[in-house]
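Colleagues,

Please find the record for the two-part complex below.
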Amino acid sequence: MDFSYLSSSGRETTKRKILIIEDDSDLLGLMKHVMENEGYVVSCAVNGAEGIFRNAQENPDLIILDLHMPEMDGIETLRKIRVSDEEVLVVILTGYASPDTIRDAADLNVSEYLSKPFENLELVSVIGNVFKL
Amino acid sequence: MKETRRLIYVPVLHAQEDSGRAASNVENGKRLKSCGKVGADRTAVEQMWQGIAAKIAELNLPWNKTRIYQDGTPVCGNEAALAERLAERGSPNYSFITELMKKGAVLEGTEDMELLIREYDLLNKLLIRKVGSERDSVNAEYQEKSRDLLVLRDKFIAGRIAATLREGELPIVFMGVMHRLDKLLEKEFQVSYVIYRLPFRSIGTIYNA
């Protein structure tokens, strides 16, 4: 079956699944809206534990992952995800960028590491590029 | 009480054009076999450097008092000429460096030539020996063997910064993400990081991970 259709930007896109793991509810809602406008199927998790669960249940194509979350941070969340899922693409977002987290991200096969703040179009472009490769 | 000096640290991903002659000659041969990805690599690299340039521009640095330390630039006496040559060859990293030099910044020889040659020899031996499906194991072997070399390189670079930085100057350091030089520098400097976007998947060269 053909699931392709035009996104709001006029570009043809397939129904790829994205999981957003972000504890900031405002940012989470905004990113969900932006990604759904681009034609992606989006699910959300507000903390690391939920993110691990949803990844296992929903098998997304890509995870947008915030690093700075209470209880279980993004790196720890991704470590646990990678134990059973080496394939899922991951884009990291962080307002607390540091060389340590960059090195951790590199070791965990992250596709993109993006520092906040960023424009919506930038995020759309980054996600689109990751899927193209 | 001695005032802690400021330092700007910019973690970067290396593109093939940023590397020295030996490594790039080997990579050129392999790149010709995967031309489809070259365009995407180039765009991601350019976007990364455009983002870095924009963030650095916001800092309004005193360029005539800024000393640049650059990953892969040997102490050789003709660092500026080397940078210009690599910029002409298409290195976005060195293109940006030469722009800063035009504004008044000085590029300082950063790395020990001997250690850099050992790095390139290691890379070439591994890249020549294995291709295609064995690439993951090649990468892992390279990472293991280059780890000790990275420690030596970082120690040299930290010493080089201490030895060459003049009173009143601001150092700006461009370093591949796998270096741990930041750990050494944090002991002596107040380090500010310029981090924007690191497109690991797009720039999938062996130099970065």
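The beta strands of chain B are 5-12, 66-70, 106-108, 170-176, 189-193, 197-198.

Comments are welcome before we finalize the supplementary table.
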